[in-house]
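One-letter codes give the sequence; the fold follows as tokens. An example follows:
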Amino acid sequence: MPVNIPDSLPAKSLLEAENVFVMSQSRAQSQDIRPLKILILNLMPLKSVTEAHLLRVLSNSPLQVEVELMMASSHAHKHTSQEHLLAFYKTFDEVKTRYFDGLIITGAPVELMEFEAVNYWKELCEIMEWSKQHVTSTFHICWGAQAGLYYHYGIKKYELHKKMFGVFSHSVEVPTEPLLRGFDDWYYAPHSRYTEVRADEIRNTKGLVILSESPEAGVYIVVSEDRKQIFVTGHPEYDRNTLAEEYWRDVNKGMEIAVPENYYSNDNPEGEPAVNWRGHAHLLYSNWLNYYVYQLTPYKFNHEH
């Protein structure tokens, strides 16, 4: 699927160099189809890195996707230039009267804080409430998944005794689920978090279904019964070096951090990690776009009738 993004977005040239199919706005406008409109609420500090991660996995289907980027306006963005934010990001106030086919809510490095202590929590709650009527399906990632489970269902998060950090094996619990169509019985995905949600609490909550779990990393993919809400506790969108960059960042800060599990050959952090999760990451996002967004979204949004 060609991803339709602004011609000047820095991630465009990076993705083109990787042979990812990216379509310029000028080319997209010449095609007589309605693209899927996907809004990304990017809560990560290094916004351009997360943009590239997500655009990469959104690029692999025949559908045309038009991506818009949104930031939390109630937060000071210290790690991304104002020029980049002004050029490419919108605030919730600028989009809240509109409708979108899909919404992605990213993770954020705030998981050891109580949800209510996060300075943009009120704004995030407003966005999550708005999404019920204005978005066909919402895909929550890592802390975003914990935030969504807490806001919509009251599911708590719990601090782990050590960081869940590495690449772990996951089982398919519901083989007939379209989101997992084409998945192997066991597959890999990266995790990087200090907190968890618990399977027993989710199973005891009406309206939620666990689709995939890991013996080591716990609950991985949860969906609402109406499939409008997808919650993924890991980071399938991470590229080859993301865990390595996080590891060396923490080492250089003098923090105690274990080498990411099942990531480096012989657990040697001086080597280059091999990717064993990319295929399922692409499949997860293309299945979401096809079965939970494209097949369900109206051709014309409510306000266009």
Notes: Residues 3-239+277-304 form a domain with the Rossmann fold fold (CATH 3.40.50.880). Residues 4 and 27 are 9 Å apart (CA to CA).
